[in-house]
Amino acid sequence: MPGMMTGRRGRVLCVAVALLISSTVTGGLALADPVRGGPSVGDARMELQWLPCSGEEQRGFECADAHVPLDWARPRGRSIELAVIRAKATDPGRRVGSLFFNPGGPGASGTTRLPALYERFPEEVRERFDIVSWDPRGVGESTAVRCFDTAEEAIAFQEQVPPFPVGKKQRRAFVAAYEDLGQRCERRFPALLRHISTADTARDLDALRAAVDERRMRYWGISYGSLLGATYANLFPDRVDRMVLDGNIDPQAWVNGGRKQGPRLSTSLRMGSDLGSAATLGQFLDLCGRASTSGCAFSAGSPGATRAKFDELMRRLKRRPVGEWTYARAVSMVRAGLNLVHPTWTETAEGLQSLWEGRPPQEPTPPSNPPYPGFEQFYAVTCSESPNPRDPRQYVNLDRLSTRRAGDLGHWWAWADEPCATWPAKAANRYAGPWDRPTLHPVLVVNPTYDPATPYQSAQAMVRQLHDARLLTLDGYGHTALTNPSSCVNAYEVRYLLAGALPPVGARCAQDLPPFTMPSPAANEGAAVRP
User: Fold this and answer.
1) % of the chain at pLDDT higher than 70
2) pLDDT tens across 185-235, in order?
3) CA 43, 47, 50 angle in degrees (round to 5)?
4) What residues are paired with 221 via a beta bridge?
5) How far is 502 from 4, CA to CA, in rounded Å?
6) What's the gap between Cα 440 and its chain centre?
7) Considering only CA atoms, which of 228, 223, 198, 180 is closest in space to residue 376?
8) CA–CA gap between residue 272 and residue 409 (Å, rounded)
9) Distance CA 365, CA 355 (A)
């Protein structure tokens, strides 16, 4: 989901082929044509050759390289490279097998996000499973969509384009910048852009399953990873063993119900992400208002007064920025800050209070050698397969609609998918359903009630659309339960992954640590299940 991106945001053909997984590194693929040369994919299957990862943040993890077909309909054609990572089970004597993890996006890198999120997994999961992730095709260290020569050049593009446009002049510049981005990517990656759909990645995932010698798929996907899991479950239903989907995308909303006519709403508005953000912001302000200023710096002493203070701050910023902090930048900060309760809600409140006092919020010092941001990788996947209005002028009307129903945050979500209006590539292998094929085992669906990017209603839709799924509700806040933890949710997930035991129908859990509170011995109260 764009809600997880840093910066601005941030077929049904089953090919029964065996896959050659090669550990040979083919260099120079990122900025040259990624499908020119490279080994073909043959009929034999080989194990991945694991070596210690080279990155400092990846210490203790193992890495490997794989090659898969660019086009799964032509398995002997050109290949692309996947970067794969794993954390081996910490209790090898009790190891169950491999658990695949996708951290969302689209465009999130598994080789960086697995090390960052590893400690968030329940201890027993880390003990019993090799947790395996990868950079999906088009992303990160795999054969990637990189439309700029350097990280600095890409960052410069991000900095010149506002989070969303305000006024006609900014709208014209915004539309032109993203149209230019699409053309830039098309010139560099004409073939790759048409073969990085969710279905393509699901087939890659099945190949990786075979490469680690697993007969069935155990999978944990968060955010966009939930859509990838649902796609896999319907392409390979007889291979689903255990599947946890957390922070859910509504599959039918993503594909616009599979309709051929152009959509009226953008992807984000069909999913109700603007409504989820607005509802979560309301909770943020109410809980802040009930806290003291030592707990929430932006508190005005009551929920109503804190909401009024926020509205007044937004009006001020529309009239005059605070230094380089414009109205759009402040809205974008709030939108992103809602994803992670601890510590980001507290930091967001501090940023709002700084703006209230006329001071720019403190910002971390940028790294001297920044990584490539890869924001275009989100658009490369989303725009190629999720229908969006093709007339840039239509987003002005979507802006009015979204702000009418979601307030200030509606601006951000209304323009989040506008780059798709002029995106030049369409997926050659898009999966649009059905979503209810009978799986070998039921799926566990988890979602916070106040998720600002993938609202709770999307999880309810996921359960309705899948053939056999059970919803576990986290009565809490933030984007995904994995990153906003609950001991109760963890316990249910462990039982499901190890024994296949589903939570009772209607099971609900609490978060371990409520917003604007400090850790205490009582923080484990979330382990209790509420009826």
Assistant:
1) 89
2) 999 999 999 999 999 999 999 999 999 999 999 999 999 999 999 999 999
3) 145
4) 102, 245
5) 28
6) 26
7) 180
8) 12
9) 19
Q: In angstroms, how far is the first alpha carbon of the chain from the final one?
A: 31
Query: Could you tell me the strand order of the sheet in which 508-510 lies?
Result: 51-52, 62-69, 79-87, 129-135, 97-102, 217-222, 240-246, 443-450, 469-477, 508-510
Q: For the segment 404-435, what is each residue's pLDDT rounded down to a tens digit?
A: 999 999 999 999 999 999 999 999 999 999 99
Measured between alpha carbons, how far is 376 from 188 in angstroms, rounded to an integer?
Answer: 13
Question: For residue range 303-359, what is the model confidence (pLDDT) as tens digits?
Answer: 999 999 999 999 999 999 999 999 999 999 999 999 999 999 999 999 999 999 999
CA 390 to each of CA 181, 359, 453: distance values in angstroms, whole numbers, following the listed order: 16, 40, 23
Distance, CA of 315 to chain centre: 31
Residue 390, phi-psi category: left (phi > 0), alpha (psi -120 to 50), beta (remainder): alpha
User: What's the angle, vertex CA 63, arms to CA 57 and CA 64, rounded to 5?
Assistant: 155
Residue 465 neighbours by CB under 8 Å, 6+ apart: 230, 250, 251, 252, 435, 436
For the chain, what percentages of helix, strand and coil (3-state, to nearest 5) are there? 45, 15, 45
Which residue pairs from 169-175 have beta carbons closer than 8 angstroms and sit at least 24 positions apart in sequence?
A: 171/396, 174/415, 174/418, 175/392, 175/418, 175/421, 175/422
pTM: 0.91
**Beta-bridge partner residues of 446:** 246, 472
Q: Please, are residues 246 and 447 in contact by the beta-carbon 8 Å criterion?
A: yes
